[in-house]
Write a structure and sequence with these properties.
eight-stranded parallel sheet; binds NADP nicotinamide-adenine-dinucleotide phosphate
């Protein structure tokens, strides 16, 4: 059974009551974190408004709470605390109470303690009904001991909540219930998280469908650092649902690729029994993953980057769907590309895949980059000419492609070319997909060029990944709508 517990922490009773009532509408359990309250009187008024199970928590600062509370103050609070289904009490307190509704908890905000097993055994030796341990993950491999502890507790019949906090621990929040965790914590909304890495209840349900995940669920994920900004979970999870595939797609924050492959991916060495089927790979790991694969398709070898991995029995197979994802929408808009004069701006990973695909379709490519050394190296590798980006004119080109981050993130107000520079160009393709409409595309419209958005490539490469993992066709519309909605949001 999957239970979502929404945790709320507010400074005054009215705000706590309002948040708790909203939480109860989307949660199975509500946790009232009382440590944010300036005045603890009035809690009963909040409880009277709630009909769902409630966890009462008064967290001191040293365990991640918001209130300086000495041992005595906490002990005295629990002596007269209002009755609720659950009391979450830190392990240094031995409550003089009925233990049958106590969650005995331990938090480590620095990392995963070496003696995690000993901590668990100590907590499990108390009469508390439930053991809760929350540790901080810095890399996806930090989730391994958490999953192992869940396995152990399940085999011992002990009710537990074990979580890895932080972005690298998100997999434990999504998969935890399917592996025996009594509940998973969630935030009411994006701005009201009560612990690092918490995601909203709405996202747990409507993006990850946590209540549908079981031990047979096929697991796919995005490997990179960072990964939490990605819209790939929105696209792939929506496509799994639409196709009736029992699958889930997770963000997997990976710092060290070698350790990740050894401990979590390679079927002959991995330490976790999980139904891993496929991985998307993003920056900075697209080239580094190559050496850990058993087989790589020739196209990906030539491009020098793998963005898709299939776990096929004992074998890890690498593919590049960026090149096809890049070219498919382009062919639809432009028709055959043979002899087309194409300017590619940028000399990084996306430019590599684009140049490779364009040459395959016999386009005449010129590279433009701010760093002419990098442009020269890439140009020599693919035997194409290169120029400096500064003061470039594109009027002699049929197609101009932006393969730099200009127009996104901190560079949102910048464009690699003005309308004036684009005059006479037939089509402009921006690989940036966030925002969907970039400044570059707006300049292209002013210059009366056709435009192609990065979102088209994003969806097309994802569709090809889906096919590799499931053997089925994904609905482009479902993926497109999910990505567009996430980006709009
Ligand atoms: P990358 O490997 O880091 O390469 C980025 C390139 O842009 C480098 O040549 C870099 O030059 C250049 N650049 C960075 N900042 C610049 C600036 N201010 N002015 C001029 N050039 C600049 O990144 P990537 O993986 O190729 O990605 C590039 C863009 O494509 C990103 O926005 C990414 O989101 C997008 N992309 C989209 C898709 C899709 O599916 N639509 C797929 C892949 C990538 P230096 O080497 O001099 O820093």
């Amino acid at each position: 059974m999957t239970r979502i517990c929404v945790s709320v922490c507010e400074t005054n009773v009215a705000a706590l009551e309002s948040a708790a009532v909203r939480a109860s509408e989307c949660a199975d359990i509500v946790e009232l974190r009382l440590d944010c309250l300036h005045d603890l009187r009035g809690v009963q008024q909040v409880l009277d408004r709630l009909s769902c199970p409630v966890i009462l928590t008064l967290r001191p600062t040293e365990e991640g709470g918001h209130r300086e509370l000495d041992h005595e103050a906490r002990a005295s609070f629990w002596k007269t605390a209002p009755h609720t289904d659950w009391w979450d009490i830190e392990s240094d307190l031995i409550p003089e109470t009925d233990w049958s509704h106590v969650i005995i908890s331990h938090h480590d905000f620095a990392g995963v303690p070496q003696d995690l097993t000993r901590i668990y055994e100590q907590l499990a030796a108390t009469p508390a009904r439930m053991v809760k341990i929350a540790v901080q993950a810095h890399d996806i491999v930090d989730c391994i001991p958490v999953f192992q502890l869940l396995d152990r507790a399940r085999s011992e019949g002990r009710e537990v909540i074990v979580i890895a906090m932080g972005n690298a621990g998100v997999a434990t929040r999504i998969l935890g219930p399917s592996r025996g965790a009594f509940l998973t914590y969630a935030a009411l909304n994006e701005g009201s998280t009560t612990a690092p890495g918490q995601i909203t209840a709405q996202k747990l349900r409507s993006v990850y469908h946590v209540d549908k995940i079981d031990r047979d669920t096929m697991i796919c994920g995005l490997v990179g650092q960072p990964v939490m900004h990605s819209v790939s979970p929105h696209m792939h999870n929506a496509a799994f649902r639409a196709a009736g595939v029992n699958g889930v797609y997770l963000p997997l924050e990976v710092r060290d690729v070698k350790t990740f492959f050894t401990r979590l991916v390679d079927p002959s060495t991995r330490e976790l029994d999980w139904n891993l089927r496929g991985l998307s790979v993003t920056a900075p790991h697209k080239s580094t993953v190559l050496e850990y694969l058993d087989w790589i398709e020739p196209e990906a070898k030539q491009i020098g980057a793998v963005n898709t991995i299939v776990v096929d029995g004992d074998e890890l197979r690498g593919f590049n769907t960026d090149a096809a994802g890049f070219i498919e929408p382009l062919l639809e808009v432009m028709g055959p590309l043979s002899g087309l004069r194409v300017a590619v701006i940028g000399a990084g990973g996306a430019a590599r895949a684009a140049v490779w695909a364009l040459l395959k379709h016999e386009a005449a490519v010129t590279l433009f980059a701010r760093n002419t050394e990098k442009a020269r190296a890439l140009g020599q590798e693919f035997d194409v000419s290169y120029e400096s980006l500064s003061s470039a004119s594109f009027s002699n080109y049929d197609l101009v492609i932006n393969a730099t981050p200009l127009g996104s993130g901190e560079l949102i107000d910048q464009s690699p070319a003005t309308a004036e520079q684009l005059t006479g160009v037939r089509c402009v393709y921006d690989l940036v997909y966030n925002p969907i409409e970039t400044l570059f595309l707006k300049e292209a419209c002013k210059a009366n060029c056709k435009t192609l958005r990065g979102l088209e490539m994003l969806v097309a490469q994802a569709k090809n990944q889906f096919q590799l993992w499931t053997g089925e066709s994904a609905s482009l519309n479902v993926m497109y709508d999910a990505a567009a909605a996430a980006l709009d949001h």
